[in-house]
Amino acid sequence: MDIVVKGRKTEVPERFRKHVAEKLNLEKIQKLDGKVMSLDVEVSKEPNPRQADRCDRVEITLRSRGPVIRAEASASDPYAALDLAAEKLDARLRKQHDKRFSRRGARRIPAAEVPDHVPGVATLNGSGANTAQEQEQAVPTKKIGSLEVQGDGPLVVREKTHVAAPMTLDQALYEMELVGHDFYLFVDSETKEPSVVYRRHAYDYGVIHLRTDTMVTENHSPEAGGTLGG
């Protein structure tokens, strides 16, 4: 496997290409991920003089049989940006490697202990029947279109609640690639608002940020207007 170094709207000197080969140790990378197929390094330059402290940007893309791993960084020169991006790549490779190792080395849980380790797992009664199904059967259901609604509703097909620590956009993209999904819901560490990253065409991504509209909230509040009556 070779390292492909390319420039976007800028030329890459031979000296920098040699530095990339020295900095990104292929043998070390393949020990952490033995299924690596390609490793690309893209260098770009920001022409805005106001961003001189981060005018050089380096993005490293590692493709393997698993999820794509990306690491990018900006600095005042390409060598410093490469060092920062390489550190991020190494950290993400180690994290992914540790996850695979922990999954392989995890002990098997006896069936009797499964409810203690897996939240929301099905539990059985003394006759071997699913207690959750018994509770569902006790609640009357009705058909509305293609949906089956229990009791009086509401029309919620499925609901999940996850505890999530705030993270950066870069971390959210990495987690999305790690789980292999086309989108990933997260709490933005800067805005503290819920956001979604999603996969677009090829290797492009999009992000949607949600922000509370105070005007709408006030207009829909009980104090904003009276009730209508006859």
UniProtKB/TrEMBL annotation:
UniProt keyword list: Cytoplasm, Translation regulation
Sigma 54 modulation/S30EA ribosomal protein C-terminal domain span: 154-207
InterPro entries: HPF/YfiA_ribosome-assoc, HPF_long/plastid, RHF-like, RHF/RaiA, Ribosom_S30AE_C, Ribosom_S30AE_C_sf
Main location: cytoplasm
Lineage: superkingdom: Bacteria
Subcellular location: Cytoplasm
Family in the record: Belongs to the HPF/YfiA ribosome-associated protein family. Long HPF subfamily.
Purpose: Required for dimerization of active 70S ribosomes into 100S ribosomes in stationary phase; 100S ribosomes are translationally inactive and sometimes present during exponential growth.
Quaternary state and interactors: Interacts with 100S ribosomes.
Protein name: Ribosome hibernation promoting factor
Naturally occurring in which organism (per UniProt): Streptomyces lusitanus
